[in-house]
Amino acid sequence: MTTKKILITGGAGFIGSHVVRRFVNHYPSYEIYNLDKLTYAGNLENLKDIENKSNYHFVKGDITDAEFIQHLFHEHQFDGVIHLAAESHVDRSISNPLEFVLTNVVGTVNLLNAAKSIWHNQYADKIFYHVSTDEVYGQLGDEGKFLETTAYSPNSPYSASKASSDHFVRAYHHTYGMQVKISNCSNNYGSHHFPEKLIPLMINNIMNNKPLPVYGKGENVRDWLFVEDHARAIDDIYHKGSNGETYNIGGNNEWQNIELVKFLCQLMDRKLGRETGESEKLISYVTDRAGHDFRYAIDASKLMNELGWEPSVTFEQGLEKTVDWYLANQEWLKNVTTGNYQQYYQSMYASR
Ligand code: NAD
Ligand code: DAU
Predict the structure, then answer these.
(1) pLDDT value of position 1
(2) Cβ proximity of 253 and 225 under 8 Å
(3) Cβ(16) to ligand 1 under 6 A?
(4) Closest to 90 in 3D by CA, of 182, 39, 154, 26
(5) Structural domain for 78, as ranges
(6) The domain that contains 38 carries what CATH number?
(7) Distance from C-alpha of 180 to C-alpha of 81, rounded to nearest angstrom
(8) Nearest-CA neighbor of 247 among 190, 163, 305, 313?
């Protein structure tokens, strides 16, 4: 058995918690270190089921603290890094871009520097894997899909910061020879998703009979992937992906926001024993997001052809699993929607 020490950053967040769970359960010979600052989006409740496993370790810390990061890498001599820690919400990036530069750009460079300093240019069996987003490619019109070769054209402060961090990772490969892998994924959905993002926000509001704020005319299109399929793709790319390569990840599952919200309303009417059409009455069109990207769509054929990955569930199956999880975990939702969340909601939606 190969023993490896792997650092996963942002493992207490939505996608990170699924990646940590997968690696801890599938690779008992790996020591998994989860580094997370526990911002509003980080929640150790997300990892309750694995927190006592002997190959799991949690470290609370901030990737913007260069000295701390250097110390951590020298202490543990990690063999690999899977980097997910980030500020991830587009609306928050519009209110506070600098926070996104610090965490997403400076934080990433701190991790690259620390990896470089412990790996001493011996990169053959060391991996720096950077988890990124399809938003770096900008927006699409009605036709076409993002390929790995699509030119970067980020439009929001969030996507500009992620694009910048992608460039730094690629530069450390080109300049220093570091073994890196990058993936750019479309919108995820699933359990443990913080209710500031479209699907969990709508689920929470439907449950509580609150208005469902659809931005603009609801015509924007997103390409949705079940989060466990994203975690499995990260596993495949980490182990089998080629050095220096980028892989697009997506489920070939485009939805107009308004159609998705209506579909979710029907599903929840059924689950909550409401009359069909009852939840849809909560839909409320609100002021659009500034600079709102029109459409994202991912061409994941490189990942499918080269590594044999494909989604494991249909959107209908994945969304039903997701709704069932939220209905069974109302305490989790209650815990994350008290306190600061109320202030956030007020500031984001009261004047829309
Ligand atoms: P999230 O906001 O749910 O979680 C982010 C995690 O990072 C949290 O646990 C938070 O505490 C931690 N974090 C934030 N700042 C930190 C810091 N300075 N130091 C240490 N930890 C810090 O995000 P997510 O939706 O799970 O996204 C994870 C990654 O995947 C991000 O890099 C994001 O850009 C990327 N991504 C997300 C999606 C999506 O649909 N959510 C799609 C594609 C790519
Ligand atoms: O494409 C990948 C990206 O997907 C990730 O990199 C980001 O981290 C993730 O947050 C997500 O970004 P989006 O901006 O696409 O996701 P969000 O859930 O915020 O919004 C999805 C769509 O729904 C978008 O068109 C805006 C719209 N929306 C969102 C919210 C929160 C609404 O209409 N109403 C809302 O209240």
Answers:
(1) 58
(2) yes
(3) yes
(4) 154
(5) 5-190+225-253+294-313
(6) 3.40.50.720
(7) 10
(8) 305
135 lines ligand 2 (CB under 6 A): yes
The verdict on residue 152 lying in a domain is yes
**Average pLDDT by consecutive 10-residue portion of the chain (352 residues)?**
89 98 98 98 98 98 98 98 98 98 99 97 94 98 98 98 99 98 98 98 98 98 98 98 98 97 98 98 98 98 98 98 98 95 95 88
pLDDT tens digits for 306-346?
999 999 999 999 999 999 999 999 999 999 999 899 999 99
- Using CA atoms, how far apart are residues 132 and 159, in angstroms rounded to an integer? 9
What angle is formed at CA 314 by the lines to CA 163 and CA 324, rounded to 5 degrees? Answer: 95
What is the pTM (predicted TM-score) of this model?
0.98
Q: Which of 89, 131, 187, 282 best tests ligand 2's pocket when mutated (most atoms within 8 Å of CB)?
A: 187
User: What integer pLDDT is reported at residue 2 of this predicted model?
Assistant: 64
d(Cα 154, Cα 132) in Å, to the nearest integer? 12
Q: Has residue 234 been placed in a domain?
A: yes
Is the CB of residue 336 below 6 angstroms from any atom belonging to ligand 1?
no
Q: Which entry of 134, 228, 236, 299 is annotated as an active-site residue?
A: 134
In a domain, residue 202? The reply is no
Catalytic residue among 33, 158, 247, 296: 158
The helix or strand, by DSSP H or E, that contains position 106, with its residue range, turns out to be none
Task: Report how many domains make up the chain.
Answer: 1
CB of 41 closer than 6 angstroms to any ligand 1 atom:
yes
Contact 177, 121 (CB under 8 A): yes
The string of pLDDT tens digits covering residues 60-114 is 999 999 999 999 999 999 999 999 999 999 999 999 999 999 999 999 999 999 9
Q: Is residue 208 part of a domain?
A: no
